[in-house]
Design the sequence.
């Protein structure tokens, strides 16, 4: 917390350009509602500027002062939601889903690979165990910053992390080339338009 | 009105009452932790569950509005079982450290656990522990004990108006914190100790000092500001250990300002416990007889017009009455109580009183403050002003004086006398708003009156009050805000230079003999070197340092006394402890000295003295009652309203925490000042 206490923060031009439109979404006198979009904006600005997506306390204060709300109310919001990081994170925030479908499909090895990478290089990776990411069909799943990487296993995860560490951006989505959430290896049913069937029509 | 049945008792309650309030109206006690009458409803502790017929599950009575025909059961087996379950959950993470907890014995959780707690815990998992927070030198935290009722958060945000506490994180990780490890900036912060239902927030100076059942509780009146806050003085073995607020809805509700609560350690330090006489430039211990003889010797043969008396800020009415009678008996009319030199007009009570009354604030819809900072000078009163601002959207405020965070919005109309002059113009936009308001009020501070142009300012404010409709048959909106608990009483009994010298004339060689009754806030340098000074008081402060004879008196906790608060409410206190050493109650000192002079005062006990008070002014015959006087019109305070100087208004005090001999002697208050000087402080770890 010590190093972060002194950290300065101010919205840059890109963020400033976005702020009026965000605040204008809320009725007059209800600007405090914009606290979450602004925190997100601040966190994304941090990612842009220093590569690590987190909000230092100075940023929380800037948001509070901008919206005319008590600072503690912003601290409450920022600490309540796990999408906001009030302590520094690595360049890649790995959210590993360990809910039942992913777990059944082998999230343990994915988790282990991610944890090992984060332990070795905390500057680059921060790992977090999360609940369902909503992509159970393609389990197991890891969310890297804003993108989902699906159909992972141990080696594929390792390969993904290696690419990320080298600064490359692998294509998000299924690691085995699955189309969206279609069955593995292509369609298994509905090859043709089904013929009309008489039964049940009455 | 809604008709409800609570445990077979049929009662009618107003619509909008909650089930809990209805149950209380029926005389049923509902256990609760998060609910507090004076705060918003949170509904998160779930302890107040009751059964309502036709509702499928037990309901949290604190947040459930009553409906007509509701049948409420507060003590069924289902209710008891539900509360037991809630209690079990609350106790999961609550440490079993009652024996070392300062809240022990006066803990809501402890009390309710007697009724609803299990005899053993079924919880075998790891308990959570929470890091303690730093909230300044007054409030100690043991956050593992916190049950997250959020009363402290709501109090600071709603009543104190400084939203500095919050609940961060969530679920099991949720913590009550200020996040920044900094002292609370409220003058009412001590109240979160009272409202905390467990031992999470306790008093730092009182930590591990005493158990509640060891304490003797005495009703008292606070004198460290002029609001007349009702207090309970907790003492043990002749030592005041704690001061808590007493509920009085007309005055302080149930709040107490920090200075009044925590300055009590000043009562044990720098005390005058024996008479002293200055011989050869040095103060030497003396006996009462020697001290009286020295004073009488100096007094004899003096021209009474060269003898004066000044009453201080903390004096009880009885001692001032005795001093006045003593002075009058020797032929002196040189009496003054206005240490700061405030030029108040004492010809009518409404010229120096808080006429709206403290309860009357709840009816006001507009406010003009001139040269006062109510937050610093009367924090409890300010909380009421703030509540009015919060509750009534029409309420607006304006201020002439140094800018300050009053915890409510106000229009800043200027900082100096010139700005006040512009308000005399009826076309001024703010004056027009005041005229349009139904019940506008004006608060005039002491720092505005303690200027050479004080009479002009008083007259100008009266004029503003007149032109804006503050003075009518059913509303009196003109208010003087005193800072000294003694001031109203002194005016009421006439401790004023009626046909004698005022305080300025007594200085600089105007008197040969000065009797200072607890007067420490005057500039001692202005008393001539030849003047013989008798200081009668309880602390070795500025007055004692200048004195030729020191007579040790009693502090406000050590004597039965009468005080008059700003609104003119006469309140009496009882003695909590005895004064230290040879110190005596102040009126008895004066009575004894009058006998030495051969002019004994005509009262031998407190009852006789109080009869004398009632004779001097009938208001003293009616303790605890106030009459809201309507303005009868016509009379104005003396003074030329146009003669206001341009000078800027100064704040009444440099610092809130040390304004009188007691708080100046208090190490806790010194810590508070150090804290405000360096507000950024990291956690100890």
Sequence:
């Amino acid at each position: 917390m010590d190093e972060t206490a002194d950290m300065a923060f101010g919205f840059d031009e890109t963020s400033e350009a976005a702020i009026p439109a965000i605040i204008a979404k809320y009725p007059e006198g209800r600007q405090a509602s914009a606290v979450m979009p602004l925190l997100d904006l601040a966190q994304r600005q941090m990612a842009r500027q220093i590569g690590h997506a987190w909000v230092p306390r100075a940023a929380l204060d800037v948001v509070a002062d901008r919206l005319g709300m008590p600072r503690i109310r912003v601290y409450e919001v920022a600490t309540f939601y796990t999408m906001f990081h009030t302590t520094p994170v690595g360049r890649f925030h790995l959210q590993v889903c360990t809910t039942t479908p992913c777990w059944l499909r082998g999230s343990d090895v994915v988790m282990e690979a991610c944890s090992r990478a984060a332990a070795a290089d905390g500057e680059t990776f921060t790992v977090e165990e999360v609940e369902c990411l909503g992509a159970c069909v393609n389990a197991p799943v890891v969310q890297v910053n804003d993108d989902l990487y699906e159909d992972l296993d141990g080696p594929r995860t390792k390969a993904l992390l290696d690419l990320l560490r080298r600064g490359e951006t692998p294509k998000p989505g299924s690691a085995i080339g699955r189309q969206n959430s279609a069955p593995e290896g292509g369609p298994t049913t509905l090859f043709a338009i089904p013929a009309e069937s008489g039964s049940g029509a009455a | 009105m809604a008709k409800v049945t609570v445990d077979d008792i049929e009662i009618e309650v107003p619509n909008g009452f909650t089930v809990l309030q209805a149950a209380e109206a029926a005389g049923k006690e509902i256990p609760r932790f998060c609910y507090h009458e004076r705060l918003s409803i949170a509904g998160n502790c779930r302890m107040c569950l009751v059964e309502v017929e036709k509702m499928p599950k037990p309901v949290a009575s604190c947040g459930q509005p009553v409906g007509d025909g509701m049948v409420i059961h507060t003590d069924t087996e289902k209710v008891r079982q539900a509360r037991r379950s809630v209690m079990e959950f609350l106790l999961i993470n609550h440490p079993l450290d009652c024996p070392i907890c300062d809240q022990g014995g006066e803990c809501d959780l402890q009390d309710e656990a007697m009724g609803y707690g299990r005899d053993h815990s079924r919880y075998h998992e790891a308990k959570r522990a929470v890091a303690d927070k730093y909230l300044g030198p007054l409030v100690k935290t043991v956050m593992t004990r916190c049950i997250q009722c959020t009363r402290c958060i709501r109090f600071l945000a709603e009543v104190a108006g400084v939203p500095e506490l919050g609940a961060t994180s969530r679920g099991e990780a949720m913590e009550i914190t200020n996040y920044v490890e900094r002292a609370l900036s409220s003058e009412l912060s001590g109240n979160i100790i009272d409202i905390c239902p467990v031992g999470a927030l306790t008093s730092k100076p009182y930590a591990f000092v005493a158990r509640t059942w060891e304490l003797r509780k005495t009703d008292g009146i606070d004198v460290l500001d002029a609001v007349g806050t009702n207090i309970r003085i907790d003492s043990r073995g002749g030592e005041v250990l704690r001061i808590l607020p007493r509920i009085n809805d007309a005055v302080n509700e149930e709040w107490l300002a920090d200075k009044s609560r925590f300055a009590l350690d000043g009562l044990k330090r720098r005390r005058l416990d024996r008479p002293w006489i200055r011989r050869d430039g040095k103060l030497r211990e003396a006996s009462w007889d020697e001290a009286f003889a020295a004073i009488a010797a100096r007094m004899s043969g003096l021209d009474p017009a060269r003898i004066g008396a000044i009453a201080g800020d903390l004096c009880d009415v009885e001692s001032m009455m005795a001093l006045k009678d003593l002075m009058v008996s020797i032929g002196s009319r040189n009496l003054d109580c206005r240490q700061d030199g405030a030029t108040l007009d004492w010809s009518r009570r409404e010229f120096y009183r808080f006429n709206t009354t403290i309860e009357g604030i709840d009816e006001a819809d507009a406010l003009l403050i001139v040269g006062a900072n109510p937050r610093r000078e009367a924090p409890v009163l300010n909380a009421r002003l703030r509540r009015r601002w919060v509750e009534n959207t029409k309420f607006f405020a304006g201020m002439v004086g140094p800018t300050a965070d009053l915890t409510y919005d106000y229009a800043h109309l200027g900082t100096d006398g010139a700005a006040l002059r512009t308000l005399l113009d009826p076309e001024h936009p703010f004056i027009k708003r005041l005229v349009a308001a139904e019940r506008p009020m004006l608060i005039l501070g002491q720092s505005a009156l303690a200027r050479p142009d004080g009479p002009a300012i008083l007259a100008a404010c009266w004029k503003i009050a007149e032109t804006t409709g503050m003075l009518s048959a059913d509303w009196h909106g003109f208010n003087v805000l005193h800072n000294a608990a003694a001031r109203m009483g002194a005016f009421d009994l006439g401790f004023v230079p009626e046909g004698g010298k005022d305080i300025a004339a007594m200085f600089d060689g105007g008197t040969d003999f000065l009797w200072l009754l607890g007067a420490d806030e005057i500039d001692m340098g202005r008393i001539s070197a030849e003047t013989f000074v008798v200081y009668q008081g309880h602390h070795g402060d500025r007055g004692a340092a200048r004195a030729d004879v020191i007579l040790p008196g009693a502090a406000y906790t050590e004597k039965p006394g009468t005080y008059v608060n700003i609104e003119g409410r006469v309140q009496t206190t009882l003695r909590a402890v005895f004064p230290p050493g040879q110190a005596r109650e102040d009126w008895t000192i004066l009575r004894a000295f009058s006998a030495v002079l051969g002019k004994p005062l005509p009262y031998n006990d407190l009852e006789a003295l109080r009869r004398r008070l009632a004779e001097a002014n009938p208001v003293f015959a009616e303790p605890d009652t106030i009459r809201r006087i309507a303005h009868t019109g016509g009379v104005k305070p003396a003074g030329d309203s146009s003669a206001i100087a341009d000078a800027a208004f100064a704040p009444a005090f440099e610092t809130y925490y040390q304004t009188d001999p007691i708080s100046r002697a208090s190490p806790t208050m010194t810590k508070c000042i150090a804290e405000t000087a360096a507000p950024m402080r990291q956690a100890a770890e």
Q: What stands out?
A: Chain A has eight helices and five strands. Strands of chain A lie at 92-97, 125-130, 142-144, 147-150, 173-174.
